[in-house]
Hints:
Layout: E1 11-13, H1 15-23, H2 25-33, H3 45-57, H4 63-77, H5 88-104, E2 109-119, E3 124-135, E4 141-147, H6 156-170, E5 176-183, E6 197-203, H7 204-224, H8 243-246
Helix pairs in contact: 1-2, 3-4, 4-5, 6-7
Amino acid sequence: MSNKSHETTIFTLSHSSMSVLKKCPREWYLRYICGHYISIAQPWSDFGLLIHEVSELYRGEGKDKLIQLAKDVRKKHKYKIHEDYVPKVPLALKNYKKYYETHLENAKKIKREQEFRTDLNEYIDLVGFLDLLYLNEQDEWVVVDLKTSKKKGEHSEQLALYYFLMTILTGKKPKRLRAQIVYLSLDSGSTDVEDFVEEYVLEHDDLDMIEQKIFGCMEIIANCGTEKDKWRKKPSALCSYCAYKEYGLCNGKV
């Protein structure tokens, strides 16, 4: 663990780790207690890394600069873009440029690639990683998550986690938090930015929901400790695709 709030910190909760805990406690045990981080290259991996880094570097200098940034970043990291994703690179760049011009060009402040971390107790940290956080012209902070996936999905829990973190770290409980999910790989054939940006307004009910989930996860961790048998498997159709089964660390059975 590279960062932690205390010397005694053992676990870090994030949106992804809480999703793993919900999906299968045994997988959580193998990954976060035993430290078996199995990484399997996916067709979209380098494409996603490329677009996220380019978006972090771009400052509104125009189409040519954006294209050059993509070339430089790809060369620097030797990204190998899967053939299925090669046509999506210019689309994602075009969509990000349009998003930047619509929402970021007149922003009062912009923070990129932010890690928010706080301690829940002396053993557990809560962390969230933001692609973008900007202050709009109405003096409202807007949380932004950039997606390079092809399909829209449900992200309310992830956004609620950011709301919870910002509330704890600032010591304030704002009435609402504005958020945007930007689907850079969507091609609607339209030039309207609204076609690939979803707007959310999170309110106190969302805070209550994520707070219950966080402390539910903390209770599971406290009850199970580091004893393997207490971290029950949750067999499902997903077991067939689980890397831990493929590597012989779990047989997928109860």
